[in-house]
Design goal:
The protein is mainly α. About 55% of the residues lie in helices and about 0% in strands. The termini are far apart.
Length: about 60
């Protein structure tokens, strides 16, 4: 019973802080370079490949 209570509270405070800064920093740099990244092509089908950065941001 004792070993089960230790991992429970230790895993709660760790996941929230590590998940918040991670997703917020990754999505920012990814959309900035939609030309070299083929993953952004399907995400921005309405915008042309010529200027996908100014369209979604505006």
């Amino acid at each position: 019973m004792m070993p089960i209570l230790a991992p429970s509270p230790a895993t709660t405070p760790e996941p929230p802080p590590a998940v918040e800064p991670a997703p917020q920093t990754q999505p920012a740099p990814r959309p900035s370079i939609p030309e070299p990244t083929p993953d952004l092509d399907p995400f921005n089908p309405p915008w042309p490949k010529g200027r996908p950065e100014p369209q979604p941001k505006a």
